[in-house]
Known about the structure:
The complex is a heterodimer. Chain A contains 39 helices and 23 strands. Chain A is an alpha/beta fold. In chain A, the strands form seven sheets. In chain A, strands 4-6-7-8-5-9 form a six-stranded mixed β-sheet, with helices on both faces. In chain A, strands 13-16-19-12-20 form a five-stranded parallel β-sheet, sandwiched between helices. In chain A, strands 1-2-3 form a three-stranded mixed β-sheet. In chain A, helix 23 (472-490) crosses helix 24 and helix 38 crosses helix 39. The longest helix of chain A has 33 residues, at 33-65. The termini of chain A are far apart. The model of chain A has no long low-confidence stretch (mean pLDDT 85). By secondary structure, chain B is mostly helical. Chain B has one domain (2-105). Chain B is 81% helix and 0% strand. Chain B has helices at residues 4-34, 37-42, 54-91, 95-105. The model of chain B has no long low-confidence stretch (mean pLDDT 89). The chains are: A alpha/beta, B mainly alpha.
Amino acid sequence: xxxxxxxxxxxxxxxxxxxxxxxxxxxxxxxxxxxxxxxxxxxxxxxxxxxxxxxxxxxxxxxxxxxxxxxxxxxxxxxxxxxxxxxxxxxxxxxxxxxxxxxxxxxxxxxxxxxxxxxxxxxxxxxxxxxxxxxxxxxxxxxxxxxxxxxxxxxxxxxxxxxxxxxxxxxxxxxxxxxxxxxxxxxxxxxxxxxxxxxxxxxxxxxxxxxxxxxxxxxxxxxxxxxxxxxxxxxxxxxxxxxxxxxxxxxxxxxxxxxxxxxxxxxxxxxxxxxxxxxxxxxxxxxxxxxxxxxxxxxxxxxxxxxxxxxxxxxxxxxxxxxxxxxxxxxxxxxxxxxxxxxxxxxxxxxxxxxxxxxxxxxxxxxxxxxxxxxxxxxxxxxxxxxxxxxxxxxxxxxxxxxxxxxxxxxxxxxxxxxxxxxxxxxxxxxxxxxxxxxxxxxxxxxxxxxxxxxxxxxxxxxxxxxxxxxxxxxxxxxxxxxxxxxxxxxxxxxxxxxxxxxxxxxxxxxxxxxxxxxxxxxxxxxxxxxxxxxxxxxxxxxxxxxxxxxxxxxxxxxxxxxxxxxxxxxxxxxxxxxxxxxxxxxxxxxxxxxxxxxxxxxxxxxxxxxxxxxxxxxxxxxxxxxxxxxxxxxxxxxxxxxxxxxxxxxxxxxxxxxxxxxxxxxxxxxxxxxxxxxxxxxxxxxxxxxxxxxxxxxxxxxxxxxxxxxxxxxxxxxxxxxxxxxxxxxxxxxxxxxxxxxxxxxxxxxxxxxxxxxxxxxxxxxxxxxxxxxxxxxxxxxxxxxxxxxxxxxxxxxxxxxxxxxxxxxxxxxxxxxxxxxxxxxxxxxxxxxxxxxxxxxxxxxxxxxxxxxxxxxxx
Amino acid sequence: xxxxxxxxxxxxxxxxxxxxxxxxxxxxxxxxxxxxxxxxxxxxxxxxxxxxxxxxxxxxxxxxxxxxxxxxxxxxxxxxxxxxxxxxxxxxxxxxxxxxxxxxxx
Lengths: 861, 106
């Protein structure tokens, strides 16, 4: 090992500032730092006990002798004086020995990274940064040990030392693993090469320092080292344990949030005791608001009574809200977000900041009060009374001056359909115009579109603030935060993966709702389901099972039976479709890709354009896919595109909002209701150009926005469009005896005349269906006859037919243009009709056998 | 072997002393805030509960005045107490020396 002594400047910098490591200090205890600390603590406890004993004796002796007086400890002329004297020294010194080593190291420094991040903002400060000043004592102990023993396998040594530490043990379960798994990793690390101290020591020190600085830790502690280990040297091994990089990132984010919130919570709890929770402010300048008090919830008072609630990942929005609320003498802010996105929690976060007085001066010593106008409405005898209450509430808020008024679900108050809407709108506008009033209203997207957006005068008064659905990563953190609640309520343990999976899967079925609400409910449902089954541990599979039940499609791991089905998909489809090898293979492999999770999440599972003559199995194949993949033929949304030849028809597909009337779209509503379904668009060549443009977006992005601005996701659908384009040409070429591939090549330029190239390019596969030749048609006729047979069997009639019948059917029904459709007609005419007639004439009934020797020769047995 | 005596004094006065001093200031501020002296001074001529009648205005000033006087008095006593505690903290390490000197002189 290279000699590590003195003070070394490392090559990396932070800003302009040089980083140094004081090796002498790190190595100063020769590997005994931890033992020395423990020894000091033991001596400290011993001295305290001794001092206590001394004090007792020193007071008992004079008490017995009846010579006790207060200042006897200052005199050395008796044993009591001596004992008291040493007791004072011991107590004082033990106080030092048992000191909190987290905030003080032996370098006489009490620097924290909080101070440092403050200093770093000051660009002029160019002092060098001594990294060791920011190490906590556990990490110092480990490094001291490393420098003394120079382990051959540094990383394994480090991990072994980290694992018993408290903070590390706390976060390990968050990765869904237990400590033993990490000991196993340590074993594997010990077998790896390139883990020598020389290579890793400086890197670990520097990178852990960066982790601690970025994640706003107080010191570089065991947790920052552990996180760095997971991010870099353990990365590969973690993958073997099925821990992906993003899970480590999520863990890091959670750790950061958790400790910051803990820190803030402490400050908050202290400040909360100072916050007045009655209607009176600190300067006694407020007035009592009888009407408001009757119908309101005081958010600041609720929060101050230790109901700590804080949004995760809403810092920017909160900043915007505060700057909007504090602007001018009066203000009005409209918070728009979907139900379940966390609007109330968001407002309560503002209340938390207000309780901690962590807000600009204009908002300090104020209350955040929610006026429950629906309660007022329900309790008023008539509309006049209600209007009076609303008017008075605004007046009271203006008079008292310390209230920020919240109107949740503001759209309900100004609901355009209600009789009093226009008058209430008038009251609101008047209040904002004339009074000094700070107003925060909340609404959702739909309510805003229906009841607020069309009233220009109202909209112009408000600052709009959109609360978007949180990202998946943030939603996972929110779930993490709520986890204790579930675990306590249901007495179960929830794995980390279950949370991430719940967030992922919640997108798959709940379209009307948003994160985090829908994921929370999914976890809730999984937990309650697990309790019913007597489970105490919830893994991702439990979540998957619940979702599979909801959507009717397996979303979890592929089971053995499903595996069999998937591998023999072609055979299964071929029981319904004759020939069309290319089409069946393409479809089967697309479905396998989708089920294996290899297809893009953002696009439809698969998209095909089937073109070719009619009656060759295009629709039948689509039905087969629906039944194989979604489990039911009925899970198919079928639209005849010849009905969408005009541009105006577009509205019928996606719906439209007309004043307060909303008509849903055929396509969008169907997909919202049945997200797991096959969409079959027949005769796509007849659709209007603008309708095709719409599908360009669906094929590309996997979503559409409907007439009401709601996002409809198509990522669980399979989209199949069929077209009869070029069918004559295909029929001609195939009859001429050309091969499939040659015909395809010949037809392609023609197809491009019908559809634009960019449209054709969007499909996963453009598949040509070839016309059925007599031999294939023979199989079709057999298939259809078999169907006939099973229909009759249900009536107790057995149908027998000879080869001769099939041959006659081919003679009668072969038509390269109409394909199998013609065959079906022929069977109807020649077989079904005749049997039907026999049944009606009562010549044929249950228990009898009908034998077809030829189409004209029918025998009943 | 380290200089345990030197380190002790360093820690007692610089590190822990600073912490205790900071804690003291925080407590002082907490007490000042809970006594609401500053808001009372800021709104000294404002009537109580927005009662702008002449009776309201009349009663506000003596109310606030008495509040502020008593508040300041309490804060003063509290400050003395805090300072006393801090001085005692500073003196504790010297008590043994004082005792030795006292006995020696006697």
